[in-house]
Structures are given as structure tokens and as C-alpha cells.
Amino acid sequence: MAITSSPVLMQLAGLAKRFGDQHALSDISFTVNAGEVLGLIGPNGAGKTTLMQAIAGTLATDDGQILWRGTPLPLPRRRQFLFYLPDGVRPWEDQYVARVTELFAAIYGRSQAVLAQTIHSLGLAPVLRKRVVELSKGYARRLLLALALLTPQPLLLMDEPFDGFDLRQTRDIMNVLREVAGAGRTLVLAIHQLRDAARVCDRFVLLAEGRVRGVGTLAQLRAQAGTPASDLEDVFLALT
Amino acid sequence: MRSPETAVVHRAPMRPLLGKELREVASGRALWTMLLILCPLVGYSFFQAVSLYDEASAAAAESPVLGSGLSPLDGILVPTFGGLYLAATLLFPFVAIRTLGREKESGALALLVQLPYRIPGLIVAKMTAIFAGWLAAVLCAASALVVWLAMGGHLYLPETLDLVSGHVLYGLLVGAIALFSASISDSAATAAIITLAFTIGSWVLDFALVGQPGMLGWISQLSLTQTLRPFEQGLLSAGLLLGMLAAICGFAALAAVWLHPGVRVSTKMARSAVCVSIAAAVIGLSTQVGRSVDVTEDRRNSFPAADQLALAELREPLIITVHLAPEDPRYVDLRRNVLAKLERAMPHVTIRLATSGQSMVGSASEDAYGEVEYTYDGRSDKSRSTSHREILPLIYALAGRPIPEPIPGQDYPGYPLIANASPALAWFLGGLPLLIVIAWWRSCRPPYVALHLTKDGGPA
Asked: Of these four, A135, B100, B227, B309, which has the most CB atoms within 10 Å of its CB?
């Protein structure tokens, strides 16, 4: 892939997915800029997870394409550039947390220092000798985040990254993600809690019933909705 | 963190993936449960086999002729490994399915397919883990051989290795079917049903269709159980090896085709058709490879040594025209006692079935029915015998060769053994299960975690 100075890292063009008669995604088009934190915002059933799976290539689409730096990104090459962290997954439940994190570190050639830093940043040290199946929901989510942070792909897709965390933990994880974005990685986060999204995201894609209802910063969305002083919740309700 | 523009991932070392797959097999209960159940299965089979062998040996002590018929292959090895066959058919599918089924059920498959490995690499790692799991089962069963040797029993290495390799291949074939089933199923339960349909369906084919004429008989050949028979008879068949390897690779390739959830079903179907076509072509080719080697010590699949040497020198093509229906017991006898041995002994043998596809009843009215015509070097003769004692002299006469003199000292001596089988039960019901439980406990222990990783920090 050619490296250009364009801010657009990835472009979605006319992505569509049907399940039988139901249109789960219809003509989804937007861009993701390098180094930004982009929030996919929408209620349950809006198509956030389906869209993430379609981008990651773990779900076959019916139409549309994904461009990386302007070049079509076929399915076999997606894992080279992006990594998708699904929601509600407990990977390799019978394995110990230490084994799972070491697996990702070994696969991606991460040093012990990077592994230690990742474990410490997510507070996983107390559960390293526990099996994945024994983890609480919060620790299971931290483990998933650790795995995502150990990957080197330029773009991270995360489905509900704050699910299972209390307010304080959510803020801590937001700081971690901010640091990741600050280091140059691009994040696309599917979030149904609009307050969380407003705190951490630079731009937003509003989804409802499988369609894009708005794309932009909060200011741009306010202008689009014609509600200049409103918050993200009001903007979302106005546009969907 | 690395620069986002340079951190493009292409390949990763296989070792971590292999380690993960092996741990996945070892960390589940399925493997250890199978091994524990295998102990009484193999142990009791071995106990019974040794007991019967002991009784036969006691009778042979008074009659040396009886003793020469006592072969450890038939008396000990085949019945003992029968327990392993049961485990492969009924229990091992659950171990093999686990290598993929758990990842599909937990959603970890979405992570797995994003790792920097090609799909065939993922399947190779899983097949390696399946092989390792099956090898553990084979080793448990093979411990019976050590017990047999400790009792003073005799083993002939080529026939022993042949039988063991047959069971290894059979287990791998079941494992490959299980992996394919897991790849097309959403749950491990569905995958188990599909796999058991293959393995138990083979039993049904064996019971219901073997010996049937025409298409039914051909279908019965598809039974997985049939693949073990030549190994149990002490034959090492190149065609069978090729066919089994093709089937294993074919099912593994199908598993690879269906693994990735992001590929359209239509694409998967098209790729499957290619895989099935290639595998079917290779399996079809394997049926044409007639080469097989008799690896038994008693040379049960061969003529006497003098005849083997004499027949090997007959370089002209021998054409045999058989006027028998394939399902006729006389043809089965002829095939086993003469034709198969001739194919192994002579360089050019062609067998033609004059009544192929006809029923026995319909063919019996023909005058020629039951005749077998032997043509060699322009001369021909007919016989209705199914015994090599009558047919070989006929062939020598056609070739203008004298009947060879028997080579002295070539007779199989037989290996009678009067032994008490009770100590074997102590091993299979006590020692071996204890070792398995200890290995299970060791595999469950938490890993060592380096000190620098355990120091807490960050959000708690």
C-alpha cells in the first residue's frame, strides 16, 4: 500500500448486508481518518456489530467495498491493516490469562516489556494465573482490550469497549485508548452509551436501522441537526 | 506503540499457534476422559485375548501343529487394538471437534481468523493437535504390547507397526472428519452428530451392505471400518495408504474452506466442489494402485516361499477370466486364496470378471459359470478350484516350468504362550489410569508467570 499524506485511512463505499428480507446494512459509506477515534453510535439493533464484522471481514457482505488509502482492500488482506475486537467473547476459556496474552505477544513479536506494559496498563496482573472462564465480566473485557493492544495493526475496531466497566474503570480505559490513539493508531469504537462516546470520540457515525444518519464531529452534527447548543443525545434523536 | 503506517502484519511464527492448539486439546476434559475410558476398553480386550491365547497355547502344548497356527497378530494385537478402534469411532470425535467447536461457540473464531496465519496454516496446527491427542490414545493402547513382551510374548515388528500405523491413520481420518464437521456447524453438538453419522454409519454399511451385489457393494466399500481390514490382515497397501491420506487431506481442506466466517457460502460451495473433485480423483486413482506388501511373519497373504520365487520369474502377462459373480462365496475364496496373492507375486496379472454385475442366480444357469480361465504366453487352461495347490501347478504347466521344490525351514513356527493375564488388569485398571490422572493434573496447573508481569499497576 502506498503511504500518502491524505488524512483518509479507510473508506467504506456502499456497504450492504441482508439477512433474508431484512436489510441489516444499507449503502453504508463514510471515511475513517488516520489517528482519530471514530465512534459508531446507535441503539441496539442499529447495525453497529454487523458493520464492524463486515469491515473486519468476519461477515460476508452483499455489496460495497472497503478502500485502504484509496486502494480496494480484499478480505485476505484486511487482517494486515485492521484488527477487530468483538463484543461478548471469552477467547480460549480453558486457558490461563497469562497464556493467552503471551500467545498474542509471541504471534506479533511483542517484547516482554511491551507485554508487561499492556498488562499493567489494563490492571490484568492479579488474574494472570486465572483461567479465562473464571474471569469477571470486567476482567474478561480487559483481557480482550489487552489482546487488541498487543496487535500492531494501524486500525483497531472495538465493539462496545466499555461494556462491563463501572464509571471509574470506564474513564481509566478511555485514558488508555486515548494514549493508544495519541501514539498514532486509529480507533473505531462501536458504543451505544452516547455519554461515553461523547467523552472519547473525535468524530461520530450515527447509525439507525442499518443506515448512516450522520457523520462528523459533534459541531458538524449539531449543524446538520440544526440544534447548535445540544449534546450528542439530542443530536442523535434529531437525526434518527 | 509502532508507527501506524509501518505496522502491517504479514506472517507469524507457527510455534505459538501450535502451542496454543496443543494446550487447547490438553486443557479440555474430553481428551483425558477418552484416555481413562480407553484403559478398561483396551485392558479388557487384552485380558480376554491373552486368556484365549493361553487356553489355545495349553492345547498346542500337546499338538505342535496347533502351535504353528498361533500368531500374536490374530491372537493378541488385533483384538487388543479393537478397543482403540472403538475409542476412535465413538470418543475421539469429541476430542477432535473441540479444537474448533469451542472457538466457534465462544466467538474466539473471529479472533483466530484475524491472526496473521493463512487458513491452511490454522488447519495444519489443528490437525497437528488432533494427531497429538490421538497419539496419546495410541500410546495407551500400545502399552499393552509392552505388557505382552514382559509376559514373554512374541511380536513381529513389521506386522505390529503396520497395524499401529493403520489405527493411527484411521484416527486421523476420524479427526479430519470431525474438524470438517466442526467447521460447517455452529455448535459442537451438531458437529458431533455429523461426525458420528460418518463413523456409526460405517458400521451400518458394514453390517447391511457388505457382500451385496452392484452399487450396494460399492457403497459398502466407502465404510471407514473397511480401511482397517488390510492392516489387520497384515497387508501394507500403497493404494489404501494413498486413499486414506487423500481422504484425510480432503476433509482437512474442506475444513479450511468452511472455516472463515467472512467468505460467502456460494464461494465456499464452489471451493468445496474443487476439493471434493481432487480428493475423489486421487481416491479413484488409489483404487487402481494394486501394489501391496505382505508384512506378516507367517506370510499368510503369500504363497509358500518357493512358489513366490518361481512366480516372480514369470514375466509374461497372466490373464485370468473368472466366470463367477462378485458376491459368490467361491469368488471370495478364490480372491483371498489365489488371486490377491498372484497379484502380489507376479509382475503382470490381469483379472477379468466375465459375470460382473450379474446376480448369482442369473449366472448360475450358464454352463461356464464357476470356471476360471488362466491364459499365459498364448496358452490357456480352465479350473473350478479355489485352492492354490491346484491352480499353481496349472500356471506352471502353462509357463512350461517345473513345480518348485519347497524350501525347507520356511514354515511358520507359531508362538504359543501360556501366560497369566491378571497382572495386565492391574496395569490397565490401576497403573495407567493413575498416570493419566497425574498427567491431567499437571496439564491443569497454572503457568509460571514472570515476576515483572505480576507487579500490579494501572486501573484496578
From this structure: B100
B305-399: what CATH class? alpha beta
Amino acid at A119: I
- Which has the closest alpha carbon to B352: B329, B322, B373, B376? B322
CA distance A41 to chain B (A): 22
**E strand or H helix at A12:** strand A8-19
- Residue pair B131/B248 in contact by the 8 Å Cβ criterion: no
Q: Is B4 within 8 Å of A34 when comparing Cβ atoms?
A: yes
In three-state secondary structure terms, B244 is: helix
Q: Which chain B residue lies closest to A150 (C-alpha atoms)?
A: B1
**What pLDDT is attached to residue B368?**
82
Mean pLDDT computed over A6-34: 93
Rounded to 5 degrees, φ, ψ at B456 are: -75, 155
* Residue A160: alpha-carbon gap to chain centroid: 7
Contact call for residues A154 and A83 (beta carbons, < 8 A):
no
Indicate yes or no: CB of A123 within 8 angstroms of CB of B459: yes
Q: Where are the beta strands (DSSP E) in B356-456?
A: 372-376, 379-383
Q: Using 50 as the pLDDT threshold, list the residues of chain B that sit under it.
A: 1-7, 358-363, 457-460
Please state, in angstroms and as integers, the Cα–Cα distance from residue B163 to each residue in A53, B84, B295, B335, B425, following that order. Answer: 48, 11, 10, 22, 23
In the structure grid, which three cell numbers stand for residue B77, read together?
Answer: 494385537
* Beta strand B372-376 pairing with B379-383: antiparallel
Which has more confidence, A235 or A51?
A51
Residue showing cell 506503540:
B1
Q: Which residues pair with B352 in a beta bridge?
A: B321
Determine contact, residues B20/B12, Cβ cutoff 8 Å. Answer: no
Which pairing describes strands B292-294 and B235-237: parallel, antiparallel, or unpaired?
Answer: antiparallel
pTM of the model: 0.89
Distances (CA, A) of B286 to A204, B39, B239: 60, 35, 4
Q: How many CB atoms lie within 10 A of CB B393?
A: 14
Name which of B121, B137, B135, B111 is nearest B18 in CA terms: B121
Residue B188 with chain A: CB contacts under 8 Å: none
Confidence of residue A164 (pLDDT cuts 50, 70, 90): confident
Nearest to A104 by CA among A93, A96, A115: A115
Interface test with A, best of B9, B23, B264, B451 (most A CBs within 10 A): B9
ipTM metric: 0.92
Is A207 in a helix, a strand, or coil? strand
| Helix B78-86, helix B119-150: angle, nearest 10 | 140
| Span A75-121, pLDDT tens digits | 989 999 999 999 989 999 999 999 999 999 999 999 999 999 999 99
Q: How far is CA B284 from CA B202, B227, B240, B281, B450, in A?
A: 19, 15, 11, 5, 55
3 state SS of A210: coil
Interface contact flag, A106 B459, Cβ < 8 Å: no
Contact: B12, A120; criterion CB under 8 Å: no
> Of A198, A188, A199, whose CA–CA distance to A236 is shortest?
A198
CA distance B89 to B78: 16
Question: What pLDDT shows up at residue B413?
Answer: 84
Cβ atoms B65, B91 nearer than 8 A = no
Contact A95, A73 (CB under 8 A): no
Tell how strand A211-216 and strand A203-208 pair up.
Answer: antiparallel
DSSP, collapsed to helix, strand or coil, labels residue A65 as strand
Domains of chain A, earliest start first: 8-239 (3.40.50.300)
Q: What is the pLDDT of residue B68?
A: 80
Which residue intervals of chain B bear CATH 3.40.30.10? 305-399
Q: Which of B119, B114, B43 lies closest to B81, judged by CA?
A: B43
